[in-house]
Amino acid sequence: MIFAIASGKGGVGKTWFAVTLAHAAARAGRRVLLFDADLGLANVDIQLGLTPDFDLGSVVAGRALLADAVLHHPEGGFDIVAGRSGSGVLSALEPAALERVLAALRHLAERYDVVLLDLGAGLERAVRRMSAWADCLLVLATEEPTSLTDAYAVLKLHAADKPHGDARVVVNQAATRQAGERTYATLQRACQTFLGRAPACAGVIRRDDRVRDAIRRQALLLTRHPNAPAAVDVTAITAALLAA
Length: 244
Ligand SMILES: Nc1ncnc2c1ncn2[C@@H]1O[C@H](COP(=O)(O)OP(=O)(O)OP(=O)(O)O)[C@@H](O)[C@H]1O
Ligand SMILES: [Mg+2]
Prior knowledge:
10 helices; alpha/beta; single chain; binds magnesium ion
């Protein structure tokens, strides 16, 4: 199953969530690939403290095959493809070049149970294409109004591109579970009213200082703070996604 993780608004926690979901799914025994699809400001490798020999930039430039850019994260038990270009070249990826990358990724995905695409912020053509290309789109939102309107914009484009597509909302940085559920309900109402259908809620992740601590140390939250509220929440979301 291929999941894309989007939010519209930047900085809401996509990369951290993608990394933690990858780790939780690997701990549940799945073969997992985390693909850094942020073509502008890739940073999965940075959050994990890894130094890849090849990244997506090398693949697009024809210096490496996608399979050569796969790096194993031993502690996490999952694989990653880093996306850093260093030059911003990837954000201007031609549609045909993007399709070639996606075809190679489709092939590579056969080796895995779960593939996660960490998408960039914004609503660029490539973000939109990859959102629709995945089997399931996970849209991260926080309670901030700007995040909610951006999450709605992502869901609206997805509904237009893929009318029967599978999109689900993840509320991140919620003050409490109840507050997170209210945030979801706001988005749900807007989608129901204006799009005629609403995405399901994949779950709520509470705001938790240990997330920042783990990122600062380039450590995995589930290893460093296994009982932290955000760790418990992501583990529950992962179990529900894998069971579906
Ligand atoms: N549940 C949470 N509790 C507390 N802080 C969080 C939580 N989730 C994310 N953060 C904070 O949000 C910051 C941004 O996270 P991250 O880099 O994963 O966001 P992003 O959406 O990938 O950003 P970008 O759009 O720039 O790619 C992190 O450094 C972390 O401090
Ligand atoms: Mg990110």
